[in-house]
Write a structure and sequence with these properties.
The chain is an alpha+beta fold and 296 residues long. It contains 7 helices and 14 strands.
Length: 296
Amino acid sequence: FMSEFGFQSFPSIETINYINQNDSVNIYTNAMKSHQKHSRGFQLIEEYMARDHKVSKKDEDYIYLSQLLQAKGIVMGIEAHRRAKPYNMGTLFWQLNDCWPAISWSSIDFFGNWKALQYKAKHAFENALISSRIQNDSIHTFIINDTYKSIQDDLVLELQDYNGKVVWSGTKKVNVKPNSSEEFYNLPISNYDRTSLVLVVKFNQNESLFYLDKPKNLKLLQGEIIKSITKTKDGYSIQLTTTVLQKDVFLFSNSKGHFSDNFFDILPNETKTIHFKTTAKSINDLQIKSLNLVHN
């Protein structure tokens, strides 16, 4: 699957700096090209990126977008397979890690940094998963339950604009059978602007954000992400807030460590708390990137 469709991505920025042995990012050095093992790897990354994204000329943005592209492709497959239960009963994707710095199919790079795919695949494999798809001008929302217990709760759906204004909402009490996949809501969207809305679905303490168009068509807004960092026993607690929806927020630090989550979305006026496990004495170099900035 991966070899045929070429869902590769570039490694992290620090991995590329390691190959270049300097602090500048250059993704087309001879060293990087020599580690590209797919005959049409660069071509496929560029084709799929141009199909779905506003392609940035900055190498750092290109690395970031390549990881989002890879994650989106694989997670779409994982969710489709899980929705098709019991016809499909699981998914394996290639590959987990790299033995050297490379542009590859991996979800964890040579230094052990999780790429976007690893973070998003972790969520896509949750035992109870909310999964939506668009078909015939409607959003079909499924709940997949891989546990052997029934789950009863309210299914809450909201169409929100990127300022957080709710333009439609619905609630339905549902009972999700053990070891099942079932569609629970069908929402017609022919009368809505697909480029300015997100469907927020909540069930059983889980939350799903589903976008109605390709990333390059979304009219994402500009807004500051405010961060608050607090020292903890084994690292740092990072609290993030914003007044507008921020898509695919990426946290980066030169300090070696692991973020509890990354490449995530933040809804307007909500707080996202991330734990960064590290032995670093400070993370003053913490950087934040989001699709809102890259696409504008």
